[in-house]
Design brief:
16 helices, globular, single chain, Na+/H+ antiporter like fold, mainly alpha
């Protein structure tokens, strides 16, 4: 019952309400649109803020503390990506390209979802390990690199089979290798990763004292920036509601069930590794989120044969709203249980503040 109350209360937070407002604006055919300059600025600001906090936290806690969580997160991300592919290919009957594109989309992470998670925890008066921002930066390209590599391997195998039967050349295989090299370069040098990694390094160098003068910009304005960004996310999601019919029942169910399973595994694993209540929630959210910003940028070049309508619509139109409205409160509740009596008392205190 308390979980349902937490979900209901989460629906009334500014972030969720402005997201729903954006959806409504799109559905009534309003001409509401965030100016392009602001639309391009907000993701940069959010990533910079996350990175700076992560770098400061890394300096305060030490790199050795984040090494194990990072390696575990990478391992789980790769495992989940391969598992997604098998489910989509064998059970969903999607073709090779769509299966790998969707698998990598759900194996990667969403920086916007991560930002919302941080704001959610702040509303509960709970903190998390700041170095998880570095884990976010590493996980972003990992799933894409694996998926593109596996796609190229499968396509190369098909080409070899055709070449043996028809006497083809090696040129197509060379094209696939060039494609993988391009994806590797784009994944690592894309603006999202560069901003995030650069901000982490700067945060590590300046430390808490250096961060203090700019905290009014990168801390106090953080939630406000997310709220404005949620309007745009809502408008885009609202415009894609019609496309949800095209993704089908199987993919719609996949877009809810798999993030739930991945997120719960993440919470339990993070708790076992000794992460805090908030850190376990954020670790689970990293594994539950799907990429709908980096994914289109990478996949449209890496796997052009895949249908963007599938991986963008499922990630943004289904998984993102589900994660920020339902799954976040559920993972918070699960994390309180796994962290013992003191965390449960905190959870009840939070719930008592809303009743």
């Amino acid at each position: 019952m308390e979980v349902l109350e937490l979900i209901q209360s989460n629906l009334l937070t500014p972030i969720v309400l402005f997201f729903l407002f954006g959806i409504i604006a799109a559905r009534i055919k309003s001409d509401l649109k965030i100016p392009e300059a602001i639309s391009e600025f907000l993701p940069i600001y959010l990533l910079a803020a996350i990175g700076l906090h992560g770098g400061v936290e890394m300096r305060n806690t030490g790199f050795e503390r984040m090494l194990v969580p990072m390696l575990v997160a990478i391992g789980l991300s790769l495992l989940f990506t391969l598992n997604h592919y098998q489910i989509l290919r064998r059970l969903g009957k999607f073709n090779l390209y769509d299966s790998y594109a969707l698998a990598s989309t759900y194996g990667a992470v969403g920086a916007v979802t991560f930002s919302v998670g941080l704001s959610f925890l702040r509303d509960q008066g709970v903190t998390s390990e700041g170095y998880l921002a570095a884990v976010l930066a590493v996980l972003e390209p990992v799933a894409f690199i694996l998926a593109i590599f596996m796609t190229n391997m499968a396509v190369a195998k098909q080409l070899r089979t055709k070449r043996q039967s028809s006497g083809g050349t090696e040129s197509d295989v060379g094209v696939q290798k060039m494609r993988l090299a391009g994806v590797l370069r784009e994944s690592v040098t894309g603006k999202a990763i560069v901003i995030l990694l650069g901000s982490i390094v700067i945060g590590y160098v300046i430390g808490s004292e250096g961060f203090e003068p700019i905290s009014i910009v990168f801390e106090e304005m953080f939630v406000g920036a997310i709220v404005i960004f949620m309007i745009e996310m809502g408008v885009i999601a609202g415009q894609r509601l019609e496309d949800i019919k095209k993704v089908g029942v199987f993919l719609s169910a996949f877009a809810i069930v798999m993030p739930t399973i991945n997120g719960m595994i993440g919470v339990l694993v993070a708790t076992a590794m000794g992460l805090s209540l908030g850190g376990s929630v954020m670790f689970g959210l990293l594994l539950a989120s799907a990429s709908f910003i980096a994914a289109p940028a990478v996949l449209r070049h890496a796997i052009p044969e895949a249908k963007p309508s599938l991986y963008i619509t499922s990630a943004l139109g289904i998984t993102f709203p589900y994660n920020i409205i339902v799954l976040l409160p559920v993972m918070f509740a699960v994390s309180t249980i796994t962290h013992g009596p003191e965390a449960i008392d905190l959870f009840r205190h939070v719930m008592g503040g809303w009743t």
